[in-house]
From TrEMBL:
The keyword Magnesium does not apply. InterPro entries: Ald_Oxase/Xan_DH_a/b, AldOxase/xan_DH_MoCoBD1, AldOxase/xan_DH_MoCoBD2, AldOxase/xan_DH_Mopterin-bd_sf, N-heterocyclic_Hydroxylase, OxRdtase_Mopterin-bd_su_IorB, TAT_signal. Pfam families: MoCoBD_1, MoCoBD_2. This is Isoquinoline 1-oxidoreductase, beta subunit.
Amino acid sequence: MTMNRRDFLKVATASSGGLLVSLNLAACAGTPTGFSEDSGSWQPDAWLELSQDNQVYFTLARVEMGQGAYTGLTTLIAEELGVAPEHIQVRFSPVGKDYINPAIGLQMTGGSTSLATSWQPLRVAGASAREMLVSAAARVWKVAPGDCSVSNGQVLHPNGSDALKFGQLVELAAKETVPDEPALKPAEEWQYIGKSRGRLDAMAKSTGTAQYGIDVELPGMVYAVVTRPPRYGAKLASFDATQALAMPGVLDVFAIDRGVALVADKYWRARKAQQTLKIEWNNEEALAVSNASVMEFYRKAAEEDPGVNEREEGDPEGAIESATRVVEVAYEQPYLAHAAMEPMNATAVYHGDRMEVWAPTQAPDLGRIAVARVTDLSPGDVDIHTTFMGGGFGRRLTQDFIEEAAAVAYQVRKPVKLIWSREEDTRHGLYRPAMLHRMKASISGDQLTGWHHQIVGPQILDWYVRNAAPAQYPWAPKFLYDTLGKVGLMAEGMATPKDVSAIEGAVDYPYQVPNIEVRHTHVDPGVPITWWRSVGYSHNGFAVETFMDELAHELGQDPYQFRRGLLQNEPRHLAVLERAAELGNWSAPVPEGRARGIAVHRSFGTYVAQVVEASIEGGNIRVHRVACAVDCGEVVNPDIVKDQIESGVIFGITAALYGNVTFENGAVKESNFHDYQVLRNHQRPEVEVAIIESREMPTGVGEPGVPPVIPALGNALFALTGQRQRALPLKA
């Protein structure tokens, strides 16, 4: 079969642009507006672009902070479109309603939702484009579309020898009807999904060409640092910048809402001059808390207020009254910092009627609100350019660093890069909340008959709603921002989603116990908090799985068999528990001087069980090995799953051994990695991950590796020493 020159030119050269296929994601509020002759494109909700020069571009609606979204989501498009993932150019999305995360209602990356929310819509998008390209080629060849096939970015003729590249077909394909229900490839035909393939961003990150927020450079850029009050809640009283302004390169010093900003032509000049500022703070409204006072506050609140009943089954009080034994314990967890390797930063430039911001943010739509708060601009006047980020862990969901950069750029009228120092990152961040858990179990004979869990502590939405509520109504005037936040809190659980940050991992207690009660006593000591990797699952996982271990020993049962017996109606919990026990040699003798602990936990829809083998050497806790089993449904890239579970293990061990933000009179004591430690490479345990095969819908893996490792390590230490530790961090 041959194609005449006239027909080929119609296909290959008539278009002025490319084919832009609307993904029409489930998150989108709108639909495509149709093909535009002027631009040669469709106006989409989210974009897959195919150009005449045979390039394929995918606009990534979720940020890449190391969790693998860049590779995983591109793989979904690649599989259905028929193009190798490495041949697709990935672009970060702009801010827009088309890129809202449907699981959250904001343009946010978090909650291990990226793959779960994209699994179906991105595959449908790729399949729709594929079918339109095939249909266009079939019209050219005058053959049935079903007789054509797609491979490596081209449509193949039924004769097996002729082919048309996607770039040759884009204009004709743009005129095809978008299929209502395109046929998705069956699993047995997958070329990329489920296969171990390298990360698409690995080369750029390895060669230093990937642009992180801290790498952004603009012509004429200056640098800013901000001095914030040592105590939360303190206000600026006065400052003297005489000495700083006389130093080389210093351009300006002025007050902003969050402290005193200093601007210089170079970063280190700004840092050096910052040390000469003489600042007086008004501490009338400043916090005066300490770690001890927070826990005392929690204990008093727990006694006075039993809290809201979040789950009740059976007759918990009756189970206590008829019990032969009642076990009561309490667990305490401290504030935790995120300690992301890339400190907070943002670059902003004010153009008079618009502002551009380059930032490593997990929530660019909230970044717009942050800018609007400190300028005369509306959210629609703000462009947020998202970059790669050197760790997020929830810290970059809060936009204080963007707010500061915008406030400075608005005043100096030059491109400004604002960078937090490591010390500022540690002392002026927002933290995983400290929590208290009061546990009670009723036992009759050798049976666990009742489970009571009282959670005491704050809710994250109280701190986050300030910018989250306005982001959902970007048309609202700024004087309503605070009102929207208050309304959002009042309507929580009714007009707005219920805040489960304090109770997740507790209300979904999986064990078959006839009488269950879970309550939350909502108290807030005033320390700024935000999401932290695995959020409420991190502290509830520790309380639940440590108490389960205590109850196993109380009943004289093996901790693994005790859990196994109570999970017979939970097949996915049971499968990971049994696989982890097998992988971790649970029934085999333990090497001398070591002990094993076990835990299982479901978070963000993913089931993870872990066996930790640990010892105490030279007065220090050493984790030798962690065996993990994970069920995250359908797997897109096994290597990324293993990487993320291993990463969660390291993150969790760090928290278990070292995590503790110390407050003294309202100020944070720790400052850098010497006193807020992270696990070093020589301390890294052997981690083995087994993935349970599943055809269930895929779930996230960025966070679920964290919750079980902390109690599993604590349980191993109990098996080793006979001493139960009920407060974190763990001690040798």
